[in-house]
């Protein structure tokens, strides 16, 4: 039993719904009670979908238990085939359905339905949403293509000389982070390279489209959380190589171009494909103030990994925390964090993330909707870079994260919540201006997002001064006052550094001198 | 998958058509979203699955920036396989939680679909935990599971679970108990109105503080602020309370009749009440008249959702001049709805239960000017050129009482006003 306030991922059947909702001519029957139908609103409200996800629920009630729930499954399946005539019928259970052991997949197989059935085992008490999406997509692709797999000893037919090289884009889904725009951007990129996009799946694909997957030369694993399993299987069964660089960030986009070229045997000059404004924006003098700003990153595996590289190498930030809730990607994120001299935070406990942010006092948080909560509480600037996200992160405008346009979007999105260079200086110089102080939000933010004042730390400092615990550090009143003169957006860091410095030097009382000694010690 | 049973009713009220099929409604856990704001020192611990946790944060829109006073103890494979003792695990989670939240005065263990199916006895667990934490807080259990409760019925189960803790009244003098969650502002208005009528012995249940438990006994007169409280009423009646049958305080007529029914118990005539409340009534009439024009003559269909449908249909047809195409509600308690049903025209199509696809087919055939429906369905209907009002807003907004009448009508008129106002694109 695990105590959860908020969850980063929904249950696995929500992952199954994401696949069904992403596709056309597929219908999902879920053996589930009425309350589980809330999942509709994830799509119709959060993502403003104009159709209900193609899901029908058995919605059994207490009075049906023990007698007629299996019958309800059959009736529902028959009703769905009659009403929607899907090309493929997916059948699964939610967490409660699973406990009834009606085995709807087997019932569907035996029911002589007009549509082909693909049952999905969810194991709802072990797995989560992304696993459910990955498993559903894999079972769907496997169910449709297994019979066409290459025989042992058979090799993939080479591309006809008159055909352009082609790839599939595997993994983008509804409720993914900016998948809609990323697909467009990556398609543009590939078009520039003379590479044809054969199938995009699951987003907007039909089962018939999935049957064409083997026609492409390679698969682009665009959303590894969803696409890994399927890409691996396609590689084994159809000898389709995997292009695994996710083109997010300037460097990664160039690496992606190089990997596509190499995989498909093309001779393409990276410079000729396109470029972004990010490098110049980052080098222009206005961005100097971004140097070594301390950034905390927490996201799904793919977005966390991409963000770390962009933050350090392309924006000139210092990455002070890196983590993910995607256990499937834990190894990758751990390895990367090590490279950055950090220990990765692998957790799906929102409170553990909050503690980490609180302790690190970063100057910018890049995270999910949950980190947006955390940052708001702590008065820290934040940009959302990953699911779970809320309605404002499904914007009307074109706003990809991938490709060269994605770099432009990321630069703007991450810089926007920060206090700009000159404003930062003015805040530091003139502290007691009645309109321009700790509690006044930065002028360009209009009260939203970062810049909210930090909780006033003086009370806790005074409390600390009163404790006689051995090893406790007290702040002299004069040092406290001096600390308050430091702008709020770096005060937490100054306080933390000074206390560290005091501990390292065996001091028990922090006075004004200690504060400046620590400042000198940590200056860069 | 549809079963339609037309039941002959006694004359004067519409016949009830019962439908069974796919339902698209929240489960009772959703009630926690407003209950945890109302009872400010209570904590709601759902014992369930990741789905329960996901529902709560999705329905709440992840918009509550304070740490919520609800959480989910998520059952894992180990709990189900019997490798971990669920009760021991629950004790551990509760201790963890109470250590984090020393301010909590009441803990509700809330049953879910999975906990009901595996027959985890939360009432028993609550009693056991009560013994452990006896001098700190009250602990009780109720079910918000979707196999037993629909949306607002979660509140009914929650309040019913508190009834055994209510102190017994010392004597049998008359005392009014207003039952059902109301917004603070509405409670204050109602207290003022009761005072104007000379009724000062008034309790509101639930109160803002978990320890403020009203006494109950033969002198207790139960006045329902919400229509979905069948089990709570039954439990209060067992404790000696008597139910005042009344319209619900929605709209001017509903609110007036509600006060009149209560005041009658104190020997106050209907005319006296009307005179005493003349000022707020006049104010409400003036405010409503401005909104009414957008609603008058417009057709309206309710999909089953909050159990507020029947009183709302009465208000919108009687006071706003809307024409009812169909009123569907998840469940009809004939005794609690008696006064309301008597006010509906006999030819109104009244549906109890649900069959989603056939209901949507009727919406498409009827093309009402406005459809009241759940959140998941609203945008798809809008995309088909139909105006909607999503019903969860009706339980998150102060809509009861005279001074909220125009706000209530405004919730329904806004989509129609918007349609006239927008010069961009097309809904159809």
Descriptive account of the structure:
Chain A is of the alpha/beta class and 524 residues long. Chain A has four domains: 12-131, Rossmann fold (3-Layer(aba) Sandwich), CATH 3.40.50; 166-271, Nitrogenase molybdenum iron protein domain (Rossmann fold, 3-Layer(aba) Sandwich), CATH 3.40.50; 278-418, Rossmann fold (3-Layer(aba) Sandwich); 458-522, Proto-chlorophyllide reductase 57 kD subunit B (Helicase, Ruva Protein, domain 3, Orthogonal Bundle). Chain A has 22 helices and 16 strands. In chain A, the strands form four sheets. Chain A has a five-stranded parallel sheet with strand order 12-11-10-13-14, sandwiched between helices. The longest helix of chain A is centred in the first third of the chain and has 17 residues, at 129-145. In chain A, 51% of the residues are buried. Mean pLDDT of chain A is 90; it is low at 446-468. Chain B is α/β, with parallel strands linked by helices. Chain B has helices at residues 32-38, 50-59, 77-80, 86-100, 113-117, 122-132, 153-162, 184-196, 230-238, 251-265, 270-276, 278-295, 309-318, 338-343, 356-366, 375-383, 392-396, 405-421, and strands spanning 3-7, 16-20, 42-48, 70-74, 106-111, 138-143, 175-179, 202-205, 220-224, 242-243, 299-302, 323-329, 350-354, 370-373, 388-390. A seven-stranded mixed sheet of chain B has the order 1-2-13-12-11-14-15, with helices on both faces. In chain B, strand 9, helix 9 and strand 10 form a beta-alpha-beta unit. In chain B, helix 7 runs parallel beside helix 9, helix 10 packs across helix 13 and helix 12 (278-295) packs parallel to helix 18. The radius of gyration of chain B is 22 Å and the shape is globular.
